[in-house]
């Protein structure tokens, strides 16, 4: 990694050395704009390139060279993807190709399931119909705001947890903000914390664990620390209306599943298409292996990422459907989702709740019933033996507040740039 960084530094400095005064002035203005838009976020989330050991002048040349490389690549990407737009003003724009690829790949663990996917005859797998549409971000209130995994390679945990949140909301009408940190730190059977994992196994672990705690009780800290953290068991787990994990393959089954719920998917994201994406529909990916876990929330295919709301279309990206095989950027290679074990009840709430769903007041039954099992079932549960009163009491839902790290806004010295 150090060798790759040195080579990238030499290339960037060489590029900046050839700048005309007019180019240097333009790139300096671009760099100042990038700093104003994304400086704080890049410093907190780990999107800044390593500049240790460089003088102010060397750092300046390094960053100008990186900005120049980004601006040169953007029009090429637009030509390759005519229905999408790209920009050098992206939170991740100052990372080199190798640095960005490393950032993405550390989140993903190939595993046996991915290896099985390679044995599929993808040429025989049909394409999606490319007709009809569903968008869970607008058609329901069952998708939480976009989050950021930060410097931790925990995309698999965000994908699995977010998919479960939506499934539970569809079943119960209540959108919970569940703990991504608990999945990251505790789901050892699904991944290695900040060193990657598998989203389908995260869903299975959440089911087998009997639920998850709320984010307010077990907040996400790995994004700023970059470390997995030890597993805690002091918080109260929420019982979730999910069953066993369902794994599918191909665009058609993915499109069908999306009619019912959001789906966890693996994609090929460690490339400049994703690095500089701004909006529109991506129609070309390089064709490498899957390296990132996200959530499909619509049949465009619309994807919810975990790189914060300043990336892409407010944290989302759209991938062309109807291409067959593994799908665009491998989106149809290994989709997975949890079974929903209860039918929809009331209209979903528009805001995630920071408290458990209120229990109705009860009336004792005439005959004793068996104690319920603590293990969630894949089958619908039988009718409850307790009957709510005519006017059950409810606690108001509240949107949990996510406290961002109080990092001072970076000065010019933080970037090593004398702007």
TrEMBL record:
Peptidase C1A papain C-terminal domain boundaries: 130-339
Biased composition (Low complexity): 343-354
Region spans: Disordered: 338-419
Compositionally biased residues, Basic residues: 387-404
Molecular function as annotated in GO: cysteine-type peptidase activity
Sorted UniProt keywords: Signal, Zymogen
An individual GO BP term: proteolysis
SMART domains per the UniProt record, alphabetical: Pept_C1
Cross-referenced PROSITE patterns: THIOL_PROTEASE_CYS
InterPro entries, per the entry: Papain-like_cys_pep_sf, Pept_cys_AS, Peptidase_C1A, Peptidase_C1A_C, Peptidase_C1A_papain-like
Stretch forming the signal peptide: 1-16
Family: Belongs to the peptidase C1 family.
Record protein name field: Peptidase C1A papain C-terminal domain-containing protein
Domain of life: Eukaryota
